[in-house]
């Protein structure tokens, strides 16, 4: 069952086309990643999903409702914008008090729900401090807490971890996983493809307002094939490179120290043996290219298709 359905959506701002015929669907309970280049249309899509803007063409349904149905959206959809800011003189608890009213939480249940979400996001101890003293990570968690007051079916998180330190990122990831376990459909945008790979079941790649790829993270990654990157600390990189000259499927990406080689997964062992026969190898690691390469490939394919007038 699809909780989010976006069909052939176009949106322009004057001469700027922000979304150019985007279609995608997100299933109930999924954690879905929306990735793309700067200005690809990710935030615009979020604004359409919560009814802050209306599409010029196309149809959108979220949790069984049109985004123009403001009451349903408030009840079923939680949106954490990239720049969620709060009145600095209010405490975290007071902020949540206002949001509880805004979201029509019954008066006799407010205190209980506020206490519960403060505990969920790990802000119980900081609840009575004013938010001007909150760290970036705490503010993001408070923003998420505002959406959890009404147990939404859908959570939209726009670059939720941008600017957080590694500990803040890890805390937020734990939180998203916990929220996701409760059958909530989560859609998040991110420029950090490792984050998307870690958290998301499926992903869509936007470029220039077009969805150029959509599918399970593993499928997208498979588009770049079974090649791996081998990085080795070598005593003599010239000897190492010469030893690989006869390997047709192997390309030396960097011929210094470390030596970086791109090769088919099945040949990584032979490549390492050849390098070790030619020079001393101190350390080495083999890595799959991951989503970054798949993302670049999708964007390139989409641009080629657009130039040729095809649909990717
Ligand atoms: N209110 C607006 N008025 C004019 N142009 C806009 C407006 N909102 C978005 N745009 C333009 O629409 C395009 C898509 O913008 P959007 O913010 O959706 O991209 P994004 O993928 O979220 O980018 P980023 O990753 O940089 O946050 C951009 O060219 C942007 O300049």
TrEMBL record:
InterPro entries: AAA+_ATPase, ABC_transporter-like_ATP-bd, P-loop_NTPase
Stretches assigned to the ABC transporter domain: 4-233
Keyword Cell cycle: no
GO molecular-function terms, A-Z: ATP binding; ATP hydrolysis activity
Keyword NADP: no
Keyword annotations from UniProtKB, A to Z: ATP-binding, Nucleotide-binding, Transport
A matching Pfam family: ABC_tran
Family, similarity comment: Belongs to the ABC transporter superfamily.
Protein's UniProt name: Cu-processing system ATP-binding protein
């Amino acid at each position: 069952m699809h909780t989010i359905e976006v069909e052939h959506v176009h949106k322009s701002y004057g001469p700027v086309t922000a979304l150019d015929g985007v279609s995608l669907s997100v299933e109930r309970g999924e954690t879905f990643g929306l990735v793309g280049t700067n200005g690809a249309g990710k935030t615009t899509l979020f604004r359409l999903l919560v009814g802050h803007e209306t599409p010029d063409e196309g149809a959108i349904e979220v949790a069984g409702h049109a985004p123009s149905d403001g009451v349903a959206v408030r009840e079923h959809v939680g949106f954490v914008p990239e720049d969620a800011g709060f009145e600095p003189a209010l405490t975290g608890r007071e902020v949540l008090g206002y949001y509880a009213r805004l979201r029509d939480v019954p008066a006799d249940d407010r205190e209980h729900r506020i206490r519960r979400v403060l505990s969920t996001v790990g802000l119980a101890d900081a609840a009575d401090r004013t938010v001007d003293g909150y760290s970036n990570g705490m503010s993001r968690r408070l923003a998420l807490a505002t959406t959890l007051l009404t147990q939404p079916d859908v959570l939209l998180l726009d670059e939720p971890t941008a600017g957080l330190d590694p500990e803040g990122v890890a805390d937020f990831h734990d939180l998203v996983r916990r929220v996701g376990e409760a059958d909530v459909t989560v859609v998040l945008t991110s420029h950090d493809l490792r984050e998307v790979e870690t958290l998301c079941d499926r992903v869509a790649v936007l470029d220039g307002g077009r969805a150029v790829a959509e599918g399970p993270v593993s499928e997208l990654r498979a588009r770049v094939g079974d090649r791996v990157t081998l990085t080795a600390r070598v005593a003599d990189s010239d000897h190492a490179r010469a030893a690989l000259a006869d390997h047709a499927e192997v390309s030396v990406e960097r011929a210094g120290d470390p030596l970086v080689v791109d090769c088919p997964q099945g040949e990584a062992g032979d490549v390492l043996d050849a390098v070790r026969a030619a020079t001393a190898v101190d350390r080495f690691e083999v890595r799959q290219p991951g989503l970054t390469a798949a993302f670049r490939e999708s964007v390139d394919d989409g641009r080629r298709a657009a130039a040729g007038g095809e649909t990717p």
